[in-house]
Amino acid sequence: MLAVSLFVPLAACQTGAGQQLTAIDTAEGSTENISSLTAVIQRSPSDPAAYNVRGSAYGKAGRYDLALADFDRALQINPNYYQAWANRGLIKRLKGDRNGALADYNRAVQLNSSYDAAYIGRGNLYRDMGQTQAAFQDFERAIRLDTTDARAYYNRGLLYQQQGQHNYAIEDFSSAISLQNDAPAPYNGRGLSYLALGDDENAFADFNQAIKLDNEVAESWSNQALVYERRGDNVKARSSYQQATQLDPSYTPAKEGLRRVSS
């Protein structure tokens, strides 16, 4: 049972289905902020940066069609605006247009071969497409560029974890945490690799920290429950699994864990 209970959360973490670090940080997607950005565009209708920033805000708000329209306009004004190519690539990826996203990311790195965000975005796209080696190479490129973007280390850590190279994964998750210590995802990732190495105490500390940072992430509660389960404390495990299933009724590791400790 131990192998099964460990494998399921690791698989969830590897796919990135549960959590991601912030993808678009250029602007917040609030209505107030978008209104202020629209006012900037009205004052400077030929400024591609204004459209790029508002497009990022629309992306943050999940208004993908409006984001695409703004990135299109930015690129009409300045076809060499590599940040807008990469941002549009991200929105296309989120909309499921993988070929379009790949073309945009490729154009971004053609225009600026030192643009770390484009490599990270393209790496995530390659990972979505099952092209693990290409994804790994892009995350490596970003890291060699001395990126300060935690996503490069986090996503490379997921690939190391998927390959069972947990010591390398722990190093990468730790680097991600040093760059962005307010997100639960790298704590959950590192905790799962600690767990795979039999280091339950450090794993438990990471899962607890993930919950402290955001107590509405089902994966964090399910991971905490897994440690309780390994300790034989089914009462606490059941409570944490229940919390996870309340937050996300479709989260398979929590549902399966709850069945195990309730039988």
Oligomer: single chain
Distance between the amino and carboxyl termini: 13 Å
Structural class: mainly alpha
The proportion of residues in beta strands is under 5%
Q: What is the number of E strands? A: 0
Helix amount, in percent?
over 70%
Averaging pLDDT over every residue, what do you get?
90
Rg over CA atoms, rounded to whole Å, is 20 Å
Q: What's the CATH architecture name of the largest domain?
A: Alpha Horseshoe
Number of helices: 15
- Integer tally of domains: 3
Description of the structure:
The protein is mainly α and 263 residues long. The chain has three domains: 1-19 and 183-263, Tetratricopeptide repeat domain (Serine Threonine Protein Phosphatase 5, Tetratricopeptide repeat, Alpha Horseshoe), CATH 1.25.40.10; 29-95, Serine Threonine Protein Phosphatase 5, Tetratricopeptide repeat; 114-176, Serine Threonine Protein Phosphatase 5, Tetratricopeptide repeat. Helix content is 76%, strand content 0%. It has 15 helices and no strands. The protein has helices spanning 2-15, 31-43, 48-60, 64-77, 82-94, 98-111, 116-128, 132-144, 150-162, 166-179, 184-196, 200-213, 218-231, 234-247, 252-262. The protein is globular, with a radius of gyration of 20 Å. 48% of the residues are buried.
Brief write-up:
The protein has helices at residues 2-15, 31-43, 48-60, 64-77, 82-94, 98-111, 116-128, 132-144, 150-162, 166-179, 184-196, 200-213, 218-231, 234-247, 252-262.
